[in-house]
């Protein structure tokens, strides 16, 4: 089926998924855009609900991905360039947009090996930061990412885009802060919380064994619940006028210190 108009009901439905978290949560659907992201989605075994392809923007890789989608039995809708522009954040993203069902992000689905190496992020406000943390977690070999507190969610299309598709490679969960604390304690996973008020530089802390690195929002840092529950609190030394680093940057430093140790 060819969809010409940007006002087509299917195109408008995808655009609404992009614009509204409430609508995504109600439909339990999200949007994946970009050839690398689409490939990693399929490689991870996710089966899209449907796909939209703009022939004018497809190259060899895009056509190969369309073949994979059709082999899986995924409905593929061809769309005009104007229709594609309405559902693609970047018009030069390769010509394919997927609509995929939500994954189960409950803690019960997370099964890290022993010793576990996890990252916990509380109250992340910017999807780009969560996506960048996913890229770092994947690169550092972390066994999973847990989001807690208010903030962005793992199914935000901007998280998927910023992660370059590593959202589909890194096991992920979402839960309230008290549940995450209890879950980690029950499994004997030590928590190392980054906070400016700590006395210990992060390079001086023992980060070996089962460990979860815990970071908080740039605006508010970690909640009192995490500051009180953490097995160890560490700080990142700051020598300039700034009193904190970007959330993704701070998390990357801590994750790679775990790798170093």
What does this structure look like?
- This protein is an alpha/beta fold and 261 residues long.
- The chain folds into 2 domains: 2-101, Ribosomal protein L30/S12 (60s Ribosomal Protein L30, Chain: A); 107-260, SPOUT methyltransferase, trefoil knot domain (Alpha/beta knot), CATH 3.40.1280.10.
- Helices cover 37% and strands 20% of the residues.
- The protein has helices at 9-19, 21-27, 35-43, 60-71, 81-87, 127-140, 157-162, 177-186, 224-229, 247-260, and strands at 2-3, 29-33, 50-53, 76-79, 96-101, 117-122, 144-148, 172-174, 190-194, 200-201, 211-216, 232-235.
- A 7-stranded parallel β-sheet has the order 8-7-6-11-9-12-10, with helices on both faces. A 5-stranded mixed β-sheet has the order 1-4-3-5-2, sandwiched between helices.
- α6 (127-140) runs parallel beside α10 (247-260).
- It starts with a strand and ends with a helix.
- The mean pLDDT is 94.
